User: Which sequence fits this backbone?
């Protein structure tokens, strides 16, 4: 597939192109360049793209403005290109003949070609005179009794402003497939793509227990599938439970679970939400854990807007609770800094995925190499990955089979990376 295939209409004359170029230099790009999500090719805006490229070569700064769209097939792409361009062009007879021939070769019916180009079916017959031998055997029309019917629909579209965001939009639209629809923002497209991927993983066969070197994963509710963990057998809990309104009651059960499985005086590191922090702390204590300290993760880059309180949230609360009286073993640094610039591109696997480095920080603070860490709410498996990287043993579960499968895949990739680094070290 080449970009030239979608240049169905004739090129602008040199004067027309120069006028377009001067307009873009003076006023910027007025109409976005439309890019196909599957191929990355320009469908509409070839002249605008050429003008931008030339202006940049001349040292003139021009902001990019792109509309990334997903289409079901080439027939939809053709229909879009025509809809986007025909109203802007006046075709002479020769140009119309060329366009009609292209559409006929693409499998369009005579009636559909006529309705699209704005001419009678008889005119289409005349335009095709002499090229009938190139007519395809099967055509697509709008008569449901004869041809496969197609309902008009708005192609999925994401407006972006940079090449990096264009790549992100393409990945999101390809991941969504037929589930994408309408005009959506880039963060929303990526969030929907993550949820769609989790849904696909839920449909896969997930074994109840998955084991590997240094870890064990279970699928199900922690109150059930981790009930066989021996009393006082876990060195630390590092977890990020759901702290939406439906998830807050779980904090009491988490407290009871921690009080049972933690070794005496050992810590549970619990990520917590701000809006219901007092309730979360009360429930952890009601479950049987003892308050030790309150730490924080400083968020990099983009921050959270808490509209209910009109607060810009620049940190995540981290609660430290112990099983019985806390027994310090080493100094604890109660502040961790998230790496990167923040934003949805750093949460590719789960809507609530946490940054890796702060989790590694807390794993180091509350445990020693070789000790056992537990996470009853796997999510995307960040705690599990942190434990492998820090040389800790791990056991965890999630009620969502898609999260368990995501974690299993991440651990397999992490083990491969560790092995590759060790191999490189041995070779040197």
Assistant:
């Amino acid at each position: 597939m080449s970009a030239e295939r979608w240049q169905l209409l004739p090129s602008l004359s040199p004067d027309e192109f120069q006028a377009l170029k001067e307009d873009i230099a003076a006023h910027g790009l007025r109409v976005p360049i439309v890019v196909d999500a599957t191929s990355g090719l320009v469908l509409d805006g070839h002249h605008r793209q050429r003008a931008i490229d030339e202006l940049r070569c001349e040292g003139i700064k021009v902001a990019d403005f792109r509309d990334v769209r997903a289409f079901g097939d080439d027939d939809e792409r053709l229909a879009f290109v025509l809809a986007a361009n025909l109203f802007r062009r006046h075709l002479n007879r020769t140009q119309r003949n060329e366009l009609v021939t292209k559409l006929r070769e693409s499998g369009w019916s005579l009636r559909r070609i006529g309705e699209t180009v704005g001419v009678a079916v008889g005119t289409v017959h005349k335009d095709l005179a002499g090229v009938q031998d190139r007519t395809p055997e099967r055509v697509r029309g709008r008569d449901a009794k004869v041809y496969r019917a197609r309902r008009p629909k708005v192609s999925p579209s994401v407006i972006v402003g940079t090449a990096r965001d264009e790549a992100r939009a393409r990945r999101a639209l390809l991941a969504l497939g037929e589930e994408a629809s309408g005009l959506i923002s880039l963060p929303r497209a990526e969030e929907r793509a993550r949820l769609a991927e989790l849904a696909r993983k839920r449909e896969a066969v997930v074994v109840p227990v998955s084991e590997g070197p240094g870890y064990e994963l279970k699928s199900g509710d922690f109150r059930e599938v981790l009930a066989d963990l021996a009393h006082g057998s876990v060195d630390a809990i590092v977890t990020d439970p759901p702290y939406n309104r439906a998830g807050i009651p779980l904090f009491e059960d988490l407290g009871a679970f921690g009080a049972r499985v933690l070794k005496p005086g050992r810590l549970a590191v619990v990520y917590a939400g701000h809006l219901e922090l007092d309730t979360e702390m009360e429930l952890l204590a009601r479950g049987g854990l003892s308050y030790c300290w309150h730490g924080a993760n400083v968020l990099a880059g983009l921050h959270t807007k808490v509209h209910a309180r009109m607060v810009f949230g620049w940190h995540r609360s981290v609660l430290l609770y112990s099983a019985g009286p806390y027994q310090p073993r080493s100094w604890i640094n109660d502040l961790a800094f998230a790496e990167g610039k923040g934003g949805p591109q750093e949460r590719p696997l789960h809507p609530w995925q946490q940054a890796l480095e702060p989790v590694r920080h807390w794993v180091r603070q509350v445990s020693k190499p070789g000790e056992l860490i537990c996470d009853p709410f796997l999510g995307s498996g960040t705690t599990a990955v942190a434990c492998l990287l820090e040389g800790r043993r791990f056991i965890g579960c999630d009620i969502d089979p898609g999260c368990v499968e995501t974690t299993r895949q991440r651990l397999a990739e992490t083990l491969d990376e560790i092995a590759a680094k060790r191999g490189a070290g041995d070779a040197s």
User: Anything to note?
Assistant: The radius of gyration is 29 Å.
